[in-house]
């Protein structure tokens, strides 16, 4: 606007001048200043002068009242001053936006302290409030939101931010109130439905959460639907509807085949729902379409392990590692399969790769120690067990491994120390008490062994192996009568277990009560005819008994 520089000079230096005359004649107040364009002094002109001049409203007001009070009605003049106050705030806000974020943040915090009211754009408020929320400064975030909504009442983005803040601080009812307001302004805003779903999820109202996530998917942009399908799957998981969760995750993977979160979640859902066969079928079909998905190959490998197909599982892990050779989880899982297949040297190589490529975990060192123990490299085994203990002093299994190693090498005092430490960490673990009984028995600590066996049985009453070993212990301690009596006390619980029947058969055979021995041997054959050798392990002389051989042949020829 040409000539508008002149009025600023005029008002600040010639407050007693005749505004109408000066403006209408285009008079320049001093040599060197260009004459301004002749304009009629009205409300619009004065507003424009104030808008472009940025002069102090309080200083200017006296000059204006003295010079133009009779030219402009008082109500209109007040309107100008109010408008000008907003204009000045706008200029301050423009200067604010030119600052870097740290300067913006400092200035904003200063404003919060001294209580000034300064106008800011919505985007500036959002950035700073997000910063406060990210640093858990919820009180500052709420004060900022209150200031923002005073300047921008009814702004949907700010209301959503406030709803999210209330959600983060557990004020779920207030969050829903904010979301209801936004829904009235923007009824098809998918973010409203997402936040409502989060509220209901925190309230453990999973069906309501599922409903609102479905609504969110209806109105969401296409690129946002992947994460929403994953969120919906999680709510189905919370509601223990795993098959529906799998369906949602299939949709997510159709839209984004490389989405790792969806692939991890679908693996979890297949596992917890017991759908291992379906998992294998899904991964194979997925790999047909996405042959370079290392996660699909990995998940196929883990599913094949559960199916007992160890060779195919190793092949799947090999494909996974061919695509992503630094994927430590695949190295670890391949190593566990090789360990199960008693290929200990190969397993050692892959456990070592796991340690090189990822954070050292106590479980990895535990398994590595077990592999070295199986290859009779006992010093290396002990080093790895101790490394596992060093990484996690409360990892009970590492102490158990050390206890068994020391028992094997005849170091009974150290063995007792380590198993006692394991029990102190997990006193309700029946296996630990079972091992403790064996450790004490080998060390000749009969009373302690007896108590440990009893404790193990009380913690796991259905474990037939503990019972059978305890009967051997009682037989050696008190004689065959006491051992048989112990077994008969448990007959009701274990009469359908082949190991129990074969053991009782061997006891009666040793006792000379052959008819009872044959009775329990035949019962064992009826339950599991492939495991009859366990009776001969208890009492080898039975293997030459003609009637025993007759029972075996009759069973196989039946």
Tell me the structural class: mainly alpha
Please give the number of β-strands.
0
In the predicted model, the low-confidence regions spanning at least 5 consecutive residues are: 1-98
Give the C-alpha Rg. 41 Å
Number of helices: 33
Instruction: Tell me the distance between the termini.
Output: 112 Å
What number is the mean pLDDT?
A: 82
What is the element layout, followed by pairings?
Elements: H1 5-13, H2 19-25, H3 43-53, H4 57-68, H5 74-97, H6 101-114, H7 122-134, H8 138-151, H9 156-168, H10 172-185, H11 190-202, H12 206-219, H13 225-238, H14 242-255, H15 260-272, H16 276-289, H17 294-306, H18 310-323, H19 328-340, H20 344-357, H21 362-374, H22 378-391, H23 396-408, H24 412-425, H25 430-442, H26 446-459, H27 464-478, H28 480-489, H29 491-494, H30 498-511, H31 514-527, H32 533-538, H33 546-557
Helix pairs in contact: 3-5, 7-8, 7-9, 8-9, 9-10, 9-11, 10-11, 11-12, 12-13, 13-14, 13-15, 14-15, 15-17, 16-17, 17-18, 17-19, 18-19, 19-20, 20-21, 21-22, 21-23, 22-23, 23-24, 23-25, 24-25, 25-26, 26-27, 27-28, 28-30, 30-31, 31-33
In short:
With 558 residues, the chain is mainly α. It has helices spanning 5-13, 19-25, 43-53, 57-68, 74-97, 101-114, 122-134, 138-151, 156-168, 172-185, 190-202, 206-219, 225-238, 242-255, 260-272, 276-289, 294-306, 310-323, 328-340, 344-357, 362-374, 378-391, 396-408, 412-425, 430-442, 446-459, 464-478, 480-489, 491-494, 498-511, 514-527, 533-538, 546-557.
């Amino acid at each position: 606007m040409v000539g508008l520089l002149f009025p600023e000079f005029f008002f600040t230096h010639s407050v007693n001048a005749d505004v109408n005359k000066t403006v209408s004649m285009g008079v320049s107040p001093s040599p060197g200043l260009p004459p301004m364009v002749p304009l009629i002094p009205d409300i619009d002109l004065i507003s424009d002068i104030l808008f472009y001049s940025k002069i102090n409203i309080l200083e200017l007001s006296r000059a204006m009242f003295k010079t133009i009070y009779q030219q402009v009605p008082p109500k209109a003049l007040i309107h100008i001053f109010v408008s000008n106050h907003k204009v000045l705030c706008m200029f301050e806000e423009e200067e604010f936006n030119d600052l870097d974020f740290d300067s913006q943040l400092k200035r904003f915090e200063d404003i919060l302290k001294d209580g000034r009211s300064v106008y800011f754009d919505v985007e500036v408020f959002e950035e700073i409030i997000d910063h406060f929320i990210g640093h858990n400064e919820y009180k500052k975030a709420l004060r900022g939101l209150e200031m923002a909504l005073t300047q921008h009442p009814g702004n949907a983005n700010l209301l959503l931010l406030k709803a999210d803040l209330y959600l983060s601080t557990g004020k779920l009812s207030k969050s829903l109130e904010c979301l209801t307001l936004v829904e009235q302004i923007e009824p098809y805003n998918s973010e409203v439905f997402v936040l409502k779903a989060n509220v209901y999820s925190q309230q453990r109202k999973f069906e309501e959460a599922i409903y609102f996530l479905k609504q969110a998917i209806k109105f969401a942009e296409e690129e946002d639907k992947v994460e929403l399908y994953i969120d919906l799957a999680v709510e189905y998981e919370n509601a223990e509807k795993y098959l529906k969760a799998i369906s949602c995750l299939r949709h997510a993977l159709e839209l984004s085949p490389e989405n790792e979160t969806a692939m991890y979640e679908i693996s979890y859902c297949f596992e917890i729902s017991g759908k291992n066969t379906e998992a294998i079928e899904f991964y194979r079909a997925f790999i047909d379409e996405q042959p370079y998905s290392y996660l699909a190959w990995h998940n196929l490998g883990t599913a094949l392990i559960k199916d007992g197909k160890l060779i195919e599982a190793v092949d799947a892990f090999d494909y996974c590692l061919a695509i992503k050779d630094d994927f430590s989880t695949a190295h670890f899982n391949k190593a566990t399969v090789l360990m199960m297949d008693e290929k200990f040297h190969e397993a050692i190589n892959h456990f070592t790769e796991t340690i090189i490529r990822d954070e050292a975990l106590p479980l990895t060192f535990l398994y590595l120690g077990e592999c070295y123990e199986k290859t009779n490299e006992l010093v290396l085994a002990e080093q790895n067990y101790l490394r596992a203990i060093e990484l996690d002093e409360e990892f009970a299994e590492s102490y158990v491994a050390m206890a068994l190693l020391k028992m094997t090498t005849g170091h009974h005092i150290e063995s007792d120390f380590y198993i006692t430490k394991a029990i102190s960490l997990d006193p309700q673990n029946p296996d630990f008490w079972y091992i403790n009984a064996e450790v004490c028995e080998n060390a000749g600590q009969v009373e302690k062994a007896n108590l440990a066996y009893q404790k193990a049985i009380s913690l796991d009453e259905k474990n037939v192996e503990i019972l059978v070993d305890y009967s051997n212990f009682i037989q050696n301690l008190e004689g065959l009568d006491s051992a048989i009596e112990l077994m008969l006390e448990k007959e009701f619980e274990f009469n359908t277990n082949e190991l129990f029947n074969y053991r009782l058969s061997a006891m009666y055979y040793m006792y000379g009560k052959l008819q009872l021995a044959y009775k329990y041997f035949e019962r064992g054959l009826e339950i599991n005819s492939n495991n009859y050798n366990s009776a001969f392990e208890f009492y080898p002389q039975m293997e030459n008994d003609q009637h025993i051989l007759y029972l075996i042949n009759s069973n196989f020829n039946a």
